[in-house]
Design brief:
Elements (H helix, E strand, L loop, with lengths): L17 H11 L6 E5 L12 E2 L9 E2 L3 E4 L10 E9 L14 E4 L11 E4 L3 E4 L2 E4 L9 E2 L10 E3 L7 H9 L4 E5 L3 E7 L3 E2 L10 E2 L2 H11 L3 E8 L3 H14 L2 E5 L10 H8 L1 E4 L4 E2 L5 E5 L2 E6 L3 H20 L9 E5 L3 E2 L5 E10 L5 E5 L9 H4 L3 E5 L5 E2 L4 E6 H4 L2
Parallel strand pairs: 5-6, 13-16, 13-17, 14-15, 17-21, 19-24, 22-25
Antiparallel strand pairs: 1-12, 2-11, 3-10, 4-6, 4-7, 5-9, 8-9, 18-20, 20-21, 22-28, 23-27, 24-25, 24-26, 26-28
Length: 418
């Protein structure tokens, strides 16, 4: 396939592979500028703009992992019970206040700070309290039940790297290192359009030949799930004189424009022509099924993503093509969805040269590996196929004939919508 240029699709008819599209995305999509500092309570889903270092060790001191007795391991007899006097009591948040002497045990509780000196904690279940003494069974290893200072994050180390999307665990880590706020990329803003004279809003009268607009609601939900601020700009008619100024106005006020429909080669498919007149297209037809007429381009400083018009194609194209564009634009680290090996529960034949995604449901397999069943109706307008499926079976370009029992890659929706 020849090398692509910015205007290669003015007359070209070639289909781009998914791998080639991924390279173009990596080369041409850059993060938005601008950061802000937000409190941890507002950090969920945001993209960390810079490394977050630990000013102090996590945890900041040695502590006990159990309720029991802190001891010097060298004080224990190897083959017999050891009896030691109990020299104090330590609870979480209330240190002993002195070093622990050799030859004594200290009563200690889970999470409490170990005093200087002891290297081992014996669980209370392995001890017998006897007045102001404790009897300790033999056989414990040195260092048992001791949490070391800095064993989670050493002082000065990077606790979270820039480009990481903040999940609950990242928010917790930021709190653990003592940071009340984090610096994040500003939130990505997206303008969203549907196109088509036949499209109507849910709840409106539905004249002959019209359909309700499911695509815009689906895509808005997918964008929101990635933390994007969505500006729903409604439905555009099949009229290039309406589409061109609408796209130009959206480009001036947003980081991203997402459209559904109008990306094919029919006489009433005007979105592609409008984008090419106002900006550029980096690609617009991929060797994937479903979702072939999906476009990446630019209008001024705004990235343009043109999704197909059929509901299933919209979702597949978003998950496989638009998602990595959005992550790159957000400044997030690449997060390819993890595929899991499963066995086919059906025979299947496909054409070589294109990547296919089959809607499928998981079942328990006889050998412990999950089994997938293909949804019986595979039309690109069958949105119920997405509702009733657990994810997509991903078939590579060079795959042709497959028989039941073959191992294939399965992409759960949970991996592709986050």
């Amino acid at each position: 396939m020849s090398q692509l240029s910015d205007d290669c699709f003015a007359a070209g008819e070639g289909l781009l592979t998914a791998a080639e599209a991924a390279r173009i995305i990596a080369d041409r999509v850059r993060p938005i500028a601008g950061t802000e500092t937000v409190p941890l309570t507002a950090a969920l889903g945001r993209v960390l703009a810079e490394d977050l270092r630990a000013d102090r060790a996590v945890p900041p001191h040695d502590s006990s992992a159990v309720d029991g007795y802190a001891i010097h391991h060298a004080d224990l007899l190897a083959e017999a019970e050891t009896v030691l006097p109990v020299g104090g009591r330590v609870t979480a948040g209330h240190p002993l206040g002195r070093a622990q002497r050799r030859g004594e045990a200290i009563r200690i509780f889970t999470g409490a700070m170990l005093p200087p000196g002891p290297d081992t904690v014996m669980m209370q279940e392995d001890c017998i309290a006897d007045g102001d003494r404790v009897r300790l069974r033999p056989g414990i290893r040195a260092g048992a039940n001791r949490r070391l200072a800095g064993e989670d994050v050493p002082a000065g180390a990077v606790a979270l790297h820039g480009g990481r999307r903040m999940r609950a665990q990242e928010v917790g880590m930021a709190a653990a290192v003592g940071s009340p706020a984090v610096t994040v990329r500003r939130r990505l803003s997206a303008a969203l359009f549907s196109t088509g004279d036949e499209i109507r809003l849910p709840g409106e009268p539905l004249p002959p030949g019209a359909v309700y607009d499911s695509n815009r609601y689906t895509v808005a939900a997918l964008l929101s799930g990635l933390g994007v601020a969505v500006d729903d700009l409604g439905i555009l008619p099949d009229d290039i004189d309406c589409i061109r100024p609408a796209l130009a106005a959206a480009a001036a006020a947003h980081d991203l424009i997402v459209t559904t429909g109008g990306m094919s080669v029919g006489d009433e498919d005007h979105v592609r022509a409008a984008v090419m007149a106002a900006g550029r297209l980096d690609f617009w037809r991929l060797a994937i099924r479903p979702g072939r007429p999906v476009a990446l381009g630019r209008i001024d400083e705004a990235i343009f993503i043109g999704l197909p018009g059929n509901p299933v194609s919209v979702m597949v194209a978003f998950m496989t093509v638009a998602r990595p564009v959005l992550l790159a634009r957000m400044g997030a680290r690449p997060e390819p969805p993890r595929a899991f090996p499963v066995r086919l529960g059906f025979d299947y034949r496909k054409k070589a040269g294109r990547r296919e995604y089959l809607r499928a449901r998981l079942e328990d397999g006889p050998d412990g590996l999950p089994l997938v069943r293909k949804f019986p109706r595979d039309g690109v307008g069958i949105l119920s196929a997405m509702v009733e499926s657990d994810g997509l079976v991903a078939l590579a370009e060079d795959t042709t004939d497959l028989t039941a029992g073959t191992l294939v890659d399965f992409l759960p929706f949970s991996e592709m919508m986050r």
